[in-house]
Amino acid sequence: MNEEHRHQIQPAVVKRLKRASGHLNNVISMIETQRTCLEVAQQLHAVERAIAAAKKALIHEHLDHCLDHALQSQPRASREAMAEFKDITKYL
């Protein structure tokens, strides 16, 4: 990845993913030590949510910066379509 494509959100995404990685390692230990299925499922759910939040933050950052930049010289209708697309992605 080129330096020019780095964004402010990247350190936050890395931090979230490292936290999720730590939680996942704990889940593996929980399974190895035969913790209850409920406990393991709860922790797996937390790992999934952490990864989903990191992915969502990364995608929104890309939409907000990279695609906006690419559309600067495009017709107004294209920019308006992108704005509408960005709005609807908030519901994913």
Helices and strands in order, then pairings?
Elements: H1 9-32, H2 37-71, H3 76-89
Helix pairs in contact: 1-2, 2-3
Describe, in plain words, how this protein is organized in 3D.
With about 90 residues, this protein is mainly α. It has one domain (about 10-90): Methane Monooxygenase Hydroxylase, Chain G, domain 1. The protein is about 80% helix and about 0% strand. The protein has helices at about 10-30, 35-70, 75-90. The radius of gyration is 18 Å and the shape is elongated.
Write down the Rg.
18 Å
- The H-and-E topology, N to C, reads as HHH
How many H/I helical runs?
A: 3
Helical content band: over 70%
CATH topology: Methane Monooxygenase Hydroxylase, Chain G, domain 1
Q: How many extended strands? A: 0
Major beta sheet, specifics? none
Principal-axes geometry comes out as elongated
Structural class: mainly alpha
Number of discrete domains: 1
Distance between the termini: 26 Å
Q: Looking at this structure, what is the CATH superfamily?
A: Metal-sensitive repressor, helix protomer
Could you list the spans in which at least 5 consecutive residues all have pLDDT below 50? none
Q: What's the average pLDDT? A: 86
Overview in brief:
The chain is mostly helical and 92 residues long. The protein has one domain: Methane Monooxygenase Hydroxylase, Chain G, domain 1, CATH 1.20.58. The chain is elongated.
